[in-house]
Amino acid sequence: MMYTVYLSGEIHTIWRQEIIDATQDLNIQFTAPVTVHPASDAAGDFLGPVEPGFWRDQQSSGVNAIRTRHDIDRADLVVVRFGDKYKQWNAAFDAGYCAARSIPYITLHDEDIVHPLKEVDQAAYAWCKTTEQVVQLLRYVLTQA
């Protein structure tokens, strides 16, 4: 059976690839949002010109949400990564979406942002501090080892 894991959140480091590389031997299909920032920002540009700023972001976020909601709805597990460089409001939204839809999710972040994420972590099935812990969790869930 194929297990589907959606990798949500921070796009400025290689955390996704670390998890994918370390679980090649497991039967996992990984999905993720568009992780190329300029492409994500321009996702709705084909719909026509709008004022820069809010309206362009609004248009592109709607187009991106089609992919994001589809992939999260079909995930067996969602990993939500919060980095330390930027505030990932989209990641917090994805975690809330998972909680509301009873889709299991885990968080991945450093200890120094525990307080601002306390509600997000409370609803998560687990909090991991490293990609290695995420890999161990996936191995346990899929192989009981």
Short description:
With 145 residues, the protein is an alpha/beta fold. The protein has six helices and five strands; from the N terminus they run βαβααβαβαβα.
List the helices and strands and how they pair.
Elements: E1 3-9, H1 15-22, E2 28-31, H2 37-41, H3 54-73, E3 77-81, H4 89-101, E4 105-108, H5 118-123, E5 126-128, H6 131-143
Parallel strand pairs: 1-2, 1-3, 3-4, 4-5
Helix pairs in contact: 1-6
The beta-strand count equals 5
Number of folding domains?
A: 1
* Percent of residues in beta strands: 15-25%
- Biggest sheet, in brief? 5 strands, parallel
Model regions low in confidence, pLDDT < 50 over at least 5 residues: none
CATH architecture: 3-Layer(aba) Sandwich
Provide structural commentary.
Helix content is 45%, strand content 16%. It has 145 residues and is an alpha/beta fold. The protein has one domain: 3-Layer(aba) Sandwich (Rossmann fold). Strands 2-1-3-4-5 form a five-stranded parallel sheet, with helices on both faces. Strand 4, helix 5 and strand 5 form a beta-alpha-beta unit. The mean pLDDT is 95.
Jot down its keywords.
145 residues, alpha/beta, Rossmann fold, five-stranded parallel β-sheet, 6 helices
